[in-house]
């Protein structure tokens, strides 16, 4: 019953996800930033760069404001990570905005509307 070793890379990746989520929720006071979820983090094998995948919620206008606020807070997020991570070099971060959750809600709404129309016709 051998268990897959929990590599340092994976630990740091998970820690970055938790800390970025915490920083966005509790440390950034930009009123433009609304509801944001840190979906995942892709950390390079050498720990030099991290792609942080974020999902934004709200109307199109609210999501755009959140996006601008997060982009302007990117260096602050990295400096906060430097204080929280026990690594020699803090990875460069890139923010990637994930639209898949919003898209799936949109598809679900369309399917619900079609189902209602089908029920009305029957």
Total tally of structural domains: 1
Span between termini: 56 Å
Coarse structural class: alpha+beta
Task: Characterize the largest beta sheet: strand count, sense, and whether it forms a barrel.
Answer: 3 strands, mixed
CATH superfamily: K homology (KH) domain
Helix content: 40-55%
Instruction: Specify the overall morphology.
Output: elongated
Précis, in short:
The protein is of the alpha+beta class.
Fold and architecture overview:
With 122 residues, the chain is an alpha+beta fold. The protein has a single domain, classed as K homology (KH) domain (GMP Synthetase, Chain A, domain 3, 2-Layer Sandwich). It has helices at residues 8-27, 60-72, 74-84, 100-121, and strands spanning 36-43, 49-56, 92-98. Strands 1-2-3 form a three-stranded mixed beta sheet. A hairpin with a 5-residue loop joins strand 1 (36-43) and strand 2. Helix 1 (8-27) crosses helix 3. The protein is elongated, with a radius of gyration of 19 Å. It starts with 7 loop residues before the first helix and ends with a helix. The model has no long low-confidence stretch (mean pLDDT 88).
Walk me through the topology.
Elements: H1 8-27, E1 36-43, E2 49-56, H2 60-72, H3 74-84, E3 92-98, H4 100-121
Parallel strand pairs: 2-3
Antiparallel strand pairs: 1-2
Helix pairs in contact: 1-3
């Amino acid at each position: 019953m051998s268990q897959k070793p929990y590599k340092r890379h994976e630990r740091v990746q998970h820690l970055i996800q938790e800390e970025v989520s915490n920083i966005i929720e509790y440390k950034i006071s930009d009123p433009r930033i609304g509801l944001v979820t840190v979906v995942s983090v892709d950390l390079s094998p050498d720990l030099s760069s991290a792609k942080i995948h974020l999902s934004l919620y709200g109307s199109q206008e609210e999501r755009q404001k959140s996006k601008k606020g997060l982009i302007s807070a990117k260096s602050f997020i990295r400096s906060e990570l430097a204080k929280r991570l026990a690594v020699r070099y803090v990875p460069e971060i890139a923010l990637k905005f994930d639209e898949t959750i919003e898209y799936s809600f949109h598809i679900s709404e369309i399917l619900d509307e079609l189902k209602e129309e089908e029920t009305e016709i029957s």
